[in-house]
Design a protein that fits this description.
three-stranded antiparallel β-sheet, 452 residues, 4 domains, 10 strands, mainly alpha, single chain, DNA polymerase, domain 1, hpI Integrase, Chain A
Length: 452
């Protein structure tokens, strides 16, 4: 039988605990429910009522009772007296309750919902319907008919999936209709445009035509830094003695009502000169984006000139007017003109971010290991680096062919950078047999290749 224990709390009040063995058997697991939120009399009365329910249920938890919460309506059962919300309305509720969102991300997701609200598919505004009225077929119609890139659809689908998952949690739905409808990632990757890598001549001409922004292009392609990281670079982030650049800040978009997310350590350092329209200084994209990278002698010369005579908290790169580099203004007033000038000389247009891709192409061509490239770019995962740039790795097929040929012709497989994979036998087998490849040779080399 269930029984009640009284416990004195540190504040002097009494909490009541109902204890029993599951199923009423001697070896049943001990169960416990605590009542401590009310007055002493209320806690004891609630415990007595709960004890009676346990006894009536055969020494089991009362049906529908959730430990620590009481009777809670199952998630699959919404309040029948309340009208189900529209998709866009519960979508906004979902976005606003996500904890780990920057102000800019939250604003962007809310913007996505506004786009969906006015998107008409086959004559219907699907996402203005009640969340309970949108079917899997509706979502497939949207994916098929919406005139956007596959990557954009995949991004929006992630938000839609989250909204429906939240609706399930809130009890409006018993199942998520977005499950199983997402575009396959293999198709999304195939739909992406080819990465643009600049030739030496193209880069040289772009730098020549960039005028006062020539140094910006040079440092971008020489470090692989993102535009928002370059624009946030302070003089104190450049260590000429050690020939390094520290990347610990980046420009971030403001949220609703110009909401910002500035870490405390950085807020203490900011001055009026560190402000920019619709943006604020924050931390870089990911944890590993906070990094320190080395600079070449050529970049050392460029940066030494850029920071000479400036204060430690001055920006290294600013606009012609002396203001922080605004992405939109730079694109309109500088980048478009530069691309037009290059196009007139027969050089195809490219994005500023393609300077980052070109930087990686140089590193791969020079034999830099992918883990080192990952660290330099600030990628959170080596998978990102491999998926984006793995196809640039040179001589992969030739290396594999050499390994197989060496084995088949009686040679000895020996790993080693820059060395031949083995020496072929001259008409007779080697007197000393090597250890299996998995111990010293091919397996370890291939594993190392795969890890990068």
């Amino acid at each position: 039988m269930a029984y009640i224990e009284k416990r004195r709390r540190t504040d002097g009040g009494i909490s009541a605990r109902v204890k029993w063995r599951l199923g009423g058997t001697r070896d049943g697991a001990v169960q416990l429910e605590v009542f401590s939120a009310g007055t002493d009399a209320q806690n004891l009365a609630r415990a007595e009522g709960f004890k009676k329910m346990v006894d009536a249920a055969g020494q089991r938890w009362p049906d529908g009772w959730v430990k620590g919460e009481g009777f809670v309506r199952p998630a699959s059962e919404a309040d029948p007296l309340t009208e189900p919300p529209r998709f866009v309305d519960i979508g906004e509720e979902y976005v606003r309750q996500i904890v780990d969102l920057s102000p800019g991300q939250r604003k962007r997701y809310l913007g996505h919902l506004r786009v969906l609200e006015v998107t008409r598919i086959r004559g219907s505004l699907i996402f203005t319907k009640p969340v309970t009225a949108i079917s899997e077929a509706d979502l497939k119609d949207w994916l098929i008919d919406w005139d956007r890139s596959l990557k954009t659809k995949a991004n929006y689908h992630g938000l839609i999936h989250g909204v429906f998952g939240y609706a399930v949690k809130r009890g409006w739905l018993s199942a998520n209709p977005a499950v199983g409808t997402a575009p396959r990632m293999s198709r999304v990757k195939q739909s992406r445009p080819e990465l643009r890598f600049l030739t030496e001549r193209e880069l040289q001409r772009a730098v020549e035509l960039a005028g006062p922004y020539a140094d910006l292009l040079t440092v971008a392609v020489g470090t692989g830094m993102r535009f928002g990281e370059l624009g946030a670079l302070w003089v104190s982030d450049v260590d000429l003695e050690r020939r390094t650049v520290r990347i610990n800040k980046a420009w971030k978009r403001n949220g609703e009502d110009d909401a910002t997310d500035v870490p405390g350590w950085l807020a203490k350092l900011l001055k009026p000169k560190h402000t920019m329209r619709d943006h604020h200084l924050g931390v870089p994209k990911t944890t590993k984006s906070r990094r320190t990278i080395t600079i070449s002698p050529a970049l050392f010369t460029v940066l030494r000139k850029r920071i000479e005579g400036k204060a430690a908290d001055d920006f290294v790169f600013v606009s012609n007017a002396g203001y922080p580099l605004h992405n939109g203004d730079f694109s309109t007033h500088v980048w478009r003109k530069l691309m037009t000038a290059l196009e007139a000389e027969g050089i195809a247009r490219f994005r500023f971010h393609d300077l980052r891709h070109t930087h990686v192409a140089w590193l791969v061509a020079g034999g830099a290991p992918l883990p080192h490239i990952q660290a330099r770019l600030g990628h959170e995962s080596i998978t990102t680096t491999i998926d984006t740039y793995g196809h640039l790795l040179p001589a992969g097929d030739e290396l594999i062919s050499g390994i197989i040929d060496t084995a088949l012709t009686g040679g000895t497989i020996r790993p080693g950078p820059g060395s031949s994979m083995g020496k072929k036998g001259k008409g007779k087998k080697s007197e000393k047999r090597t250890k299996p490849a998995r111990d010293q040779g091919v397996s370890r080399s291939v594993e190392k290749e795969a890890a990068t």
